[in-house]
Amino acid sequence: MIARRTVVRGLVSLPMFTTRGLAAPVGGVERIDPALDSIIDPSASVTMLASGFRWAEGPVWAPALDCLLFADPPANIVYRWKEGAGASPFLSPSGLQGPVPAGQREAGLNGLAIGRDGALVAADSGTRAIVRVDLHTRQRTILADRYQGKRFNSPNDLCIAPSGVIYFTDPPYGLTGGDDSPLRELDHCGLYRLAPDGEVVLIDRSHRRPNGVALSPDGQTLYLALSDEQQPEVLAYRLDVRGLPVDQRLFRDMRPQRAQGLPGLPDGIKVGRDGHLFATGPGGVHVCTADGVLLGIVGTGKAVANCCIDPEGHRLFLTSTDMLAMIALKAGLG
Protein backbone atom coordinates (compact mmCIF):
# COMPACT_ATOMS: atom_id res chain seq x y z
CA MET A 1 0.00 0.00 0.00
CA ILE A 2 2.82 2.40 0.79
CA ALA A 3 4.20 2.03 -2.75
CA ARG A 4 0.90 3.25 -4.19
CA ARG A 5 1.06 6.47 -2.18
CA THR A 6 3.22 9.42 -3.05
CA VAL A 7 3.52 12.86 -1.48
CA VAL A 8 3.53 15.61 -4.07
CA ARG A 9 4.49 19.20 -3.50
CA GLY A 10 4.89 22.16 -5.79
CA LEU A 11 4.32 25.86 -6.10
CA VAL A 12 1.00 27.52 -6.88
CA SER A 13 1.17 29.68 -9.98
CA LEU A 14 -0.17 32.87 -8.44
CA PRO A 15 1.63 34.38 -5.43
CA MET A 16 -0.71 35.64 -2.74
CA PHE A 17 -0.04 38.17 -0.04
CA THR A 18 -1.67 38.45 3.35
CA THR A 19 -1.64 41.00 6.13
CA ARG A 20 0.12 38.31 8.18
CA GLY A 21 3.01 37.70 5.82
CA LEU A 22 3.93 36.24 2.45
CA ALA A 23 2.06 33.06 1.47
CA ALA A 24 4.26 29.99 1.81
CA PRO A 25 3.97 26.27 0.95
CA VAL A 26 3.08 23.98 3.85
CA GLY A 27 2.28 20.28 4.15
CA GLY A 28 1.54 18.30 1.01
CA VAL A 29 -0.81 15.91 -0.78
CA GLU A 30 -0.86 12.16 -0.21
CA ARG A 31 -1.97 10.57 -3.48
CA ILE A 32 -3.69 7.26 -2.77
CA ASP A 33 -5.55 6.76 -6.06
CA PRO A 34 -4.53 8.10 -9.50
CA ALA A 35 -8.07 9.45 -9.88
CA LEU A 36 -7.02 12.25 -7.53
CA ASP A 37 -5.08 13.76 -10.44
CA SER A 38 -8.37 14.79 -12.07
CA ILE A 39 -9.12 16.95 -9.01
CA ILE A 40 -5.72 18.17 -7.82
CA ASP A 41 -2.75 18.63 -10.13
CA PRO A 42 0.27 16.59 -8.96
CA SER A 43 2.33 19.80 -8.95
CA ALA A 44 -0.08 21.71 -6.68
CA SER A 45 0.90 22.52 -3.10
CA VAL A 46 -0.88 23.60 0.05
CA THR A 47 -0.14 27.27 0.64
CA MET A 48 -0.50 29.18 3.91
CA LEU A 49 -2.41 32.44 3.41
CA ALA A 50 -2.55 33.73 7.00
CA SER A 51 -1.59 32.57 10.47
CA GLY A 52 -1.63 33.57 14.13
CA PHE A 53 -5.17 32.48 15.01
CA ARG A 54 -6.18 30.64 18.18
CA TRP A 55 -8.30 28.04 16.31
CA ALA A 56 -9.36 28.72 12.72
CA GLU A 57 -12.74 27.26 11.75
CA GLY A 58 -15.82 27.35 9.53
CA PRO A 59 -14.63 28.82 6.20
CA VAL A 60 -17.28 29.92 3.72
CA TRP A 61 -17.20 32.02 0.57
CA ALA A 62 -19.47 35.08 0.82
CA PRO A 63 -20.52 36.15 -2.72
CA ALA A 64 -22.08 39.39 -1.45
CA LEU A 65 -18.66 40.52 -0.21
CA ASP A 66 -16.56 38.59 -2.75
CA CYS A 67 -14.38 37.21 0.03
CA LEU A 68 -13.76 34.27 2.31
CA LEU A 69 -15.09 34.41 5.85
CA PHE A 70 -13.73 32.15 8.58
CA ALA A 71 -14.10 31.98 12.35
CA ASP A 72 -11.84 31.90 15.37
CA PRO A 73 -14.29 30.71 18.06
CA PRO A 74 -11.99 31.06 21.11
CA ALA A 75 -11.09 34.62 20.07
CA ASN A 76 -14.75 35.49 19.29
CA ILE A 77 -13.79 36.88 15.86
CA VAL A 78 -14.84 36.20 12.27
CA TYR A 79 -12.14 37.15 9.77
CA ARG A 80 -12.44 38.24 6.15
CA TRP A 81 -9.81 37.16 3.61
CA LYS A 82 -9.49 38.72 0.16
CA GLU A 83 -6.82 38.00 -2.39
CA GLY A 84 -4.32 40.83 -2.34
CA ALA A 85 -5.62 42.19 0.95
CA GLY A 86 -5.06 39.28 3.31
CA ALA A 87 -7.01 38.54 6.48
CA SER A 88 -8.59 41.11 8.77
CA PRO A 89 -11.32 41.04 11.47
CA PHE A 90 -14.85 41.31 10.09
CA LEU A 91 -17.02 40.56 13.13
CA SER A 92 -15.61 41.20 16.61
CA PRO A 93 -17.25 40.00 18.74
CA SER A 94 -18.66 37.43 16.35
CA GLY A 95 -20.77 35.37 18.73
CA LEU A 96 -21.57 36.20 22.34
CA GLN A 97 -22.06 39.97 22.47
CA GLY A 98 -21.83 40.51 26.23
CA PRO A 99 -19.54 39.33 29.02
CA VAL A 100 -18.35 35.74 28.69
CA PRO A 101 -19.69 33.75 31.64
CA ALA A 102 -17.53 31.39 33.65
CA GLY A 103 -17.58 27.96 32.10
CA GLN A 104 -17.86 29.23 28.51
CA ARG A 105 -14.79 28.02 26.59
CA GLU A 106 -15.58 29.34 23.09
CA ALA A 107 -17.59 32.56 22.84
CA GLY A 108 -17.51 33.03 19.06
CA LEU A 109 -19.20 31.77 15.93
CA ASN A 110 -18.05 28.38 14.68
CA GLY A 111 -19.52 26.78 11.54
CA LEU A 112 -20.56 29.30 8.87
CA ALA A 113 -22.88 29.07 5.86
CA ILE A 114 -24.56 31.45 3.43
CA GLY A 115 -28.35 31.47 3.35
CA ARG A 116 -30.62 31.76 0.34
CA ASP A 117 -30.85 35.53 0.89
CA GLY A 118 -27.07 35.95 0.98
CA ALA A 119 -26.91 36.46 4.75
CA LEU A 120 -24.48 34.65 7.00
CA VAL A 121 -26.01 31.76 8.95
CA ALA A 122 -23.83 30.48 11.77
CA ALA A 123 -23.51 28.03 14.61
CA ASP A 124 -22.97 30.41 17.52
CA SER A 125 -21.05 28.55 20.18
CA GLY A 126 -21.08 31.50 22.59
CA THR A 127 -24.76 32.40 22.36
CA ARG A 128 -25.55 28.67 22.10
CA ALA A 129 -27.79 29.30 19.12
CA ILE A 130 -28.18 29.22 15.35
CA VAL A 131 -28.04 32.83 14.19
CA ARG A 132 -28.44 34.92 11.05
CA VAL A 133 -26.14 37.90 10.46
CA ASP A 134 -26.82 40.50 7.77
CA LEU A 135 -23.45 40.95 6.07
CA HIS A 136 -24.09 44.62 5.31
CA THR A 137 -25.73 45.89 8.51
CA ARG A 138 -24.20 43.24 10.88
CA GLN A 139 -27.67 42.85 12.45
CA ARG A 140 -28.04 39.53 14.28
CA THR A 141 -31.17 37.39 14.52
CA ILE A 142 -31.48 34.24 16.62
CA LEU A 143 -33.13 31.50 14.55
CA ALA A 144 -33.13 28.84 17.29
CA ASP A 145 -31.55 28.52 20.71
CA ARG A 146 -33.55 25.77 22.40
CA TYR A 147 -34.91 22.28 21.98
CA GLN A 148 -38.05 21.50 23.98
CA GLY A 149 -37.40 24.56 26.11
CA LYS A 150 -33.80 23.67 26.99
CA ARG A 151 -30.76 25.59 25.75
CA PHE A 152 -28.45 23.95 23.25
CA ASN A 153 -24.97 22.90 24.39
CA SER A 154 -22.86 24.85 21.86
CA PRO A 155 -23.90 24.58 18.20
CA ASN A 156 -20.83 23.65 16.18
CA ASP A 157 -21.47 23.22 12.46
CA LEU A 158 -24.32 23.49 9.97
CA CYS A 159 -25.39 23.22 6.35
CA ILE A 160 -28.39 24.61 4.48
CA ALA A 161 -30.63 22.75 2.02
CA PRO A 162 -32.07 24.55 -1.03
CA SER A 163 -35.43 24.49 0.77
CA GLY A 164 -33.97 26.62 3.55
CA VAL A 165 -33.86 23.75 6.04
CA ILE A 166 -30.79 23.98 8.30
CA TYR A 167 -29.04 20.87 9.62
CA PHE A 168 -26.76 21.46 12.59
CA THR A 169 -24.82 19.70 15.32
CA ASP A 170 -24.65 20.48 19.02
CA PRO A 171 -21.68 18.96 20.90
CA PRO A 172 -20.42 20.56 24.15
CA TYR A 173 -17.09 21.86 22.80
CA GLY A 174 -17.91 25.45 23.72
CA LEU A 175 -18.35 24.60 27.39
CA THR A 176 -15.32 24.31 29.64
CA GLY A 177 -16.55 21.19 31.41
CA GLY A 178 -17.74 19.44 28.26
CA ASP A 179 -20.21 16.69 29.13
CA ASP A 180 -19.94 17.58 32.81
CA SER A 181 -20.49 21.32 32.41
CA PRO A 182 -23.00 22.75 34.91
CA LEU A 183 -24.23 25.01 32.08
CA ARG A 184 -25.64 22.05 30.13
CA GLU A 185 -29.42 21.73 29.98
CA LEU A 186 -29.69 18.86 27.47
CA ASP A 187 -28.47 15.38 28.32
CA HIS A 188 -27.41 14.55 24.77
CA CYS A 189 -25.32 15.84 21.86
CA GLY A 190 -27.68 16.13 18.93
CA LEU A 191 -27.97 16.33 15.18
CA TYR A 192 -30.91 18.63 14.41
CA ARG A 193 -33.13 19.84 11.59
CA LEU A 194 -34.28 23.47 11.76
CA ALA A 195 -37.18 24.27 9.42
CA PRO A 196 -37.75 27.75 7.92
CA ASP A 197 -40.78 28.13 10.22
CA GLY A 198 -38.55 27.66 13.28
CA GLU A 199 -39.47 24.06 14.12
CA VAL A 200 -36.52 22.16 15.60
CA VAL A 201 -36.47 18.37 15.14
CA LEU A 202 -33.92 16.10 16.80
CA ILE A 203 -32.64 13.71 14.11
CA ASP A 204 -30.10 11.72 16.09
CA ARG A 205 -28.98 11.83 19.73
CA SER A 206 -26.94 8.63 19.77
CA HIS A 207 -23.47 10.03 19.08
CA ARG A 208 -20.95 11.38 21.57
CA ARG A 209 -19.37 14.06 19.36
CA PRO A 210 -21.45 14.96 16.27
CA ASN A 211 -19.62 17.66 14.34
CA GLY A 212 -19.40 18.52 10.62
CA VAL A 213 -22.47 18.21 8.38
CA ALA A 214 -22.99 18.48 4.62
CA LEU A 215 -25.56 17.57 1.99
CA SER A 216 -25.10 15.70 -1.28
CA PRO A 217 -25.80 17.72 -4.46
CA ASP A 218 -29.18 16.01 -4.94
CA GLY A 219 -30.15 16.70 -1.33
CA GLN A 220 -30.89 13.04 -0.66
CA THR A 221 -27.91 12.28 1.59
CA LEU A 222 -26.81 14.03 4.77
CA TYR A 223 -23.22 13.45 5.89
CA LEU A 224 -22.17 13.66 9.55
CA ALA A 225 -18.62 13.65 10.94
CA LEU A 226 -18.00 12.16 14.37
CA SER A 227 -15.12 13.85 16.20
CA ASP A 228 -14.90 10.89 18.53
CA GLU A 229 -11.50 9.39 19.36
CA GLN A 230 -13.14 5.96 19.70
CA GLN A 231 -15.37 6.32 16.64
CA PRO A 232 -13.62 8.55 14.06
CA GLU A 233 -16.14 8.11 11.26
CA VAL A 234 -18.19 9.92 8.66
CA LEU A 235 -21.77 8.67 8.44
CA ALA A 236 -24.31 9.05 5.63
CA TYR A 237 -28.05 9.38 6.26
CA ARG A 238 -30.52 8.75 3.43
CA LEU A 239 -33.22 11.43 3.58
CA ASP A 240 -36.89 11.21 2.62
CA VAL A 241 -38.83 13.90 0.75
CA ARG A 242 -39.28 15.84 4.01
CA GLY A 243 -35.54 15.87 4.61
CA LEU A 244 -35.71 13.41 7.50
CA PRO A 245 -33.46 10.34 7.78
CA VAL A 246 -34.65 6.96 6.59
CA ASP A 247 -31.50 5.02 7.41
CA GLN A 248 -27.79 5.52 8.01
CA ARG A 249 -24.56 3.86 6.88
CA LEU A 250 -20.85 4.17 7.43
CA PHE A 251 -19.38 6.37 4.69
CA ARG A 252 -15.74 6.70 5.76
CA ASP A 253 -13.84 5.00 8.55
CA MET A 254 -10.82 7.08 9.57
CA ARG A 255 -9.48 4.64 12.15
CA PRO A 256 -6.47 3.66 9.98
CA GLN A 257 -5.24 7.27 9.82
CA ARG A 258 -6.03 7.75 13.49
CA ALA A 259 -3.98 4.63 14.32
CA GLN A 260 -1.04 6.12 12.42
CA GLY A 261 -1.04 9.02 14.84
CA LEU A 262 -1.90 11.60 12.19
CA PRO A 263 -3.15 14.93 13.59
CA GLY A 264 -6.84 15.70 13.73
CA LEU A 265 -10.22 14.00 13.91
CA PRO A 266 -13.26 13.95 11.59
CA ASP A 267 -14.61 17.50 11.61
CA GLY A 268 -15.76 19.74 8.75
CA ILE A 269 -17.20 18.38 5.47
CA LYS A 270 -17.84 19.97 2.10
CA VAL A 271 -19.27 18.38 -1.05
CA GLY A 272 -18.37 19.37 -4.61
CA ARG A 273 -20.90 19.76 -7.41
CA ASP A 274 -19.97 16.32 -8.74
CA GLY A 275 -20.48 14.65 -5.36
CA HIS A 276 -16.84 14.33 -4.28
CA LEU A 277 -16.48 14.70 -0.52
CA PHE A 278 -13.81 16.80 1.16
CA ALA A 279 -13.91 15.57 4.75
CA THR A 280 -11.39 16.70 7.32
CA GLY A 281 -9.89 14.02 9.53
CA PRO A 282 -6.59 12.54 10.73
CA GLY A 283 -3.89 13.84 8.40
CA GLY A 284 -5.93 16.59 6.75
CA VAL A 285 -8.73 16.73 4.17
CA HIS A 286 -9.77 13.28 2.95
CA VAL A 287 -10.79 13.59 -0.71
CA CYS A 288 -13.35 10.86 -1.44
CA THR A 289 -15.64 9.79 -4.25
CA ALA A 290 -19.39 9.85 -3.71
CA ASP A 291 -19.08 6.12 -2.97
CA GLY A 292 -16.61 6.71 -0.15
CA VAL A 293 -13.43 5.67 -1.97
CA LEU A 294 -10.44 7.58 -0.57
CA LEU A 295 -8.45 9.25 -3.37
CA GLY A 296 -5.99 11.22 -1.30
CA ILE A 297 -5.37 13.41 1.73
CA VAL A 298 -4.51 17.11 1.63
CA GLY A 299 -2.50 18.02 4.72
CA THR A 300 -0.79 20.97 6.38
CA GLY A 301 1.20 19.03 8.98
CA LYS A 302 -1.37 20.11 11.59
CA ALA A 303 -4.99 19.24 12.36
CA VAL A 304 -7.39 20.62 9.75
CA ALA A 305 -10.70 21.65 11.31
CA ASN A 306 -12.69 22.58 8.23
CA CYS A 307 -12.58 23.47 4.54
CA CYS A 308 -14.58 25.05 1.73
CA ILE A 309 -14.51 25.41 -2.05
CA ASP A 310 -14.79 28.77 -3.80
CA PRO A 311 -17.82 29.34 -6.09
CA GLU A 312 -15.82 28.63 -9.26
CA GLY A 313 -14.51 25.37 -7.81
CA HIS A 314 -10.89 26.35 -8.40
CA ARG A 315 -9.62 26.59 -4.80
CA LEU A 316 -9.96 24.51 -1.65
CA PHE A 317 -9.51 26.60 1.51
CA LEU A 318 -8.43 24.92 4.74
CA THR A 319 -8.64 26.18 8.31
CA SER A 320 -5.87 24.38 10.19
CA THR A 321 -5.30 25.14 13.88
CA ASP A 322 -3.60 28.58 13.73
CA MET A 323 -3.61 29.10 9.97
CA LEU A 324 -5.67 29.62 6.82
CA ALA A 325 -4.36 27.66 3.84
CA MET A 326 -5.33 26.92 0.23
CA ILE A 327 -4.68 24.48 -2.60
CA ALA A 328 -5.67 24.87 -6.26
CA LEU A 329 -8.21 22.46 -7.77
CA LYS A 330 -8.21 21.37 -11.41
CA ALA A 331 -11.93 20.86 -11.86
CA GLY A 332 -14.81 23.25 -11.24
CA LEU A 333 -16.07 21.55 -8.10
CA GLY A 334 -17.69 24.42 -6.23
Give the helices and strands, then pairings:
Blueprint: E1 6-8, E2 17-18, E3 21-22, E4 24-26, E5 28-31, E6 46-51, E7 57-62, E8 67-72, E9 77-82, E10 86-91, E11 109-114, E12 120-124, E13 129-133, E14 140-144, E15 146-147, E16 150-151, E17 158-160, E18 166-170, E19 190-194, E20 200-204, E21 210-215, E22 221-226, E23 233-239, E24 245-253, H1 255-259, E25 269-271, E26 277-281, E27 284-288, E28 294-299, E29 306-309, E30 315-320, E31 323-328
Question: Could you describe the 3D structure shown?
Answer:
- The structure is a single chain.
- The protein has one helix and 31 strands.
- It has 334 residues and is mainly beta.
Structural class: mainly beta
Helices, by number, come to: 1
**What is the helical fraction, as a range of percent?**
under 10%
* Overall pLDDT confidence: 92
Q: Give the overall shape, derived from the CA principal axes.
A: globular
The strand order across the widest sheet is: 1-5-28-27-26-25
Q: What Rg is obtained from the alpha carbons, in whole angstroms? A: 18 Å
Relative strand content: 35-45%
Counted beta strands: 31
- Distance N terminus to C terminus? 31 Å
What characterizes the major β-sheet?
A: 6 strands, antiparallel
List low-pLDDT spans.
1-21
Summary, kept brief:
With 334 residues, the protein is mostly beta strands. It has one helix at 255-259; strands at 6-8, 17-18, 21-22, 24-26, 28-31, 46-51, 57-62, 67-72, 77-82, 86-91, 109-114, 120-124, 129-133, 140-144, 146-147, 150-151, 158-160, 166-170, 190-194, 200-204, 210-215, 221-226, 233-239, 245-253, 269-271, 277-281, 284-288, 294-299, 306-309, 315-320, 323-328.
